[in-house]
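SUBJECT: protein chain
CONTENTS: sequence, structure tokens:
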Amino acid sequence: MIVFLKVLVFVVVFAVSLVLAFRKNIKSRDSSFEIRSKTGLLFGCILVIVILFLLSAVGAIPAGHRGVVLRLGAVTERILPEGFYVVKPVLDSVETISVQVRAYIVPATAASKDLQDVNTQITLNYYVKPDKVSKVYQTLRHDYEVRIIHPAIQECVKASTAQYDAEELIVKRPLVKQAIELAVKSRLEEHGLGMDTVSIT
């Protein structure tokens, strides 16, 4: 939407500058017409460049997201909330990161204490912590599911189920779930991610 508005403003400004450049001069035949036309066209081009320069500094962060301000490609500590923002033209750019709760579903295979195969499906509801989006973007970009969440779930399920016999995994299911939740939560928080709930099938 913001890109569309920027393009629309560009087209309108360019059209207005052309109209101003040639208005009232079309019928004129004297030598000053060419000079006035070139001056008007030059003014119009400069105006368009200035408008584009200023438009590169404004934008909007959608609901459920935060903006990470990059200065010449380097991550800064500035985090933009939802809504309209203004940054330094050309020097700064903005990368948006979702802070909404997402569901990540993954099958996990482990072995119980008595060496029985345990096949589970884990549904993890997680989110990027709003005050940690700069750290998350700097270290993980948007690859946190593959690089952090998936390995963390696999490792935590294996470590937790290995403490119980196959029968105990059924009888003591709440304890197993709690152990997995605590282990996963600890791993996620190290990387600026938060855990909402874990469901185990």
Remarks:
- Helices lie at 2-22, 32-55, 133-140, 144-161, 166-171, 173-189.
- The two ends are 41 Å apart (CA to CA).
- Strands lie at 58-61, 65-71, 74-80, 83-86, 92-98, 102-111, 117-128, 193-200.
